Recover the amino acids of this structure.
């Protein structure tokens, strides 16, 4: 399958509500992705979209991307509107016992999240989907990022693993290896989209470019772990986006230099063989092998204040709307 338009979805825990709203606005604008690449909550949002797209096809319907966005928003309002639908914080004494027995399984029991994924994501729908989907998770043994798709046995395990924030949530054993949140390596899996030949990318990130110093309790282990992950992942995704844009600028500059050199050689009294040799050497430079890929980045202006263990349906609705508004604004300027 040829991948021209790619939708790249970052991690962000419960802030994925912003992403869902932005996705709904993007799909309503007419964007039809050939593939979705997701990390963490981006895997949850992306797998839901691919599942519902496959469900449409299996029902004999045409792909309706605006409807997919509306269904994703409804999914958040109906199935992700309270902390109990994601996980339950472990009690102190069992937690201490698990540490002493070297059987630590995260600060949060994510059994509800597993039940949600298994109820909402059907591997058969993913296989039938005209939109390919990739979940980024990290193998803790090898340190490698794995991009699981519909061909992977146990694809739902990879989706759950992709959301498994280290320390905060239990790692997921697949085969004999432990897997965790893809954000450890790829907060927004741009590289895979590039390697797959994407010609246009929309990347939706749940964090702003600059963290504003949101208040948290350093003595509260769950909040400390979450904040630490936010700081690390924000730096990673900022670096990835900056590198992506730098490559685009370098490709544009290289093309300009190549065009100018060709014009200059054509105006000189130089043998055609000499000119051809010089231009041939230009094509051997690394820049000549790179591509310029248009990218639209949608992300909030300020930090979204949502606590994974304490949020309300009203807050989810507000963040969904925020995502729609930011996406509408950013799409209007591209």
């Amino acid at each position: 399958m040829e991948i021209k338009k790619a939708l790249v979805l970052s991690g962000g825990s419960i802030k994925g509500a912003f992403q869902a709203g932005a996705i709904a606005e993007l799909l309503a604008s007419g964007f039809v992705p050939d593939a979705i690449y997701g990390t963490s909550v981006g895997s949850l949002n992306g797998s839901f979209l691919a599942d519902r797209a496959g469900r449409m096809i299996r029902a004999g319907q045409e792909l309706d991307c605006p409807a997919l966005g509306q269904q994703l928003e409804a999914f958040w309002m109906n199935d992700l509107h309270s902390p109990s639908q994601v996980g339950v914080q472990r009690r102190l004494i069992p937690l201490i016992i698990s540490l002493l027995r070297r059987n630590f399984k995260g600060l949060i029991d994510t059994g509800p999240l597993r039940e949600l994924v298994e109820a909402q994501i059907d591997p058969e729908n993913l296989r039938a989907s005209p939109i390919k989907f990739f979940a980024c998770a990290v193998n803790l043994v090898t340190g490698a990022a794995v991009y699981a798709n519909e061909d992977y046995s146990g694809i739902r395990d990879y989706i759950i693993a992709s959301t498994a924030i280290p320390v905060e949530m239990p790692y997921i054993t697949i085969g004999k290896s432990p897997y965790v949140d893809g954000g450890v390596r790829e907060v927004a899996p741009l590289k895979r989209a590039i390697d797959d030949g994407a010609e246009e990318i929309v990347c939706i990130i749940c964090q702003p470019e600059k963290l504003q110093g949101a208040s948290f309790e350093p003595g509260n282990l769950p909040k400390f772990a979450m904040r630490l992950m936010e700081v690390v992942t924000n730096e990673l995704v900022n670096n990835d986006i900056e590198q992506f844009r730098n490559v685009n600028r370098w490709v544009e500059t290289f093309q300009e230099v190549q065009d100018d050199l060709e014009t200059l050689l054509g105006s000189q009294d130089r043998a055609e063989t000499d000119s051809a040799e010089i231009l041939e050497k230009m094509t051997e430079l690394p820049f000549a092998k790179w591509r310029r890929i248009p990218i639209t980045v949608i992300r909030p202006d300020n930090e979204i204040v949502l606590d994974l263990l304490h949020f309300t349906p009203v807050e989810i609705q507000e963040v969904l709307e925020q995502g729609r508004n930011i996406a509408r604004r950013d799409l209007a300027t591209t």
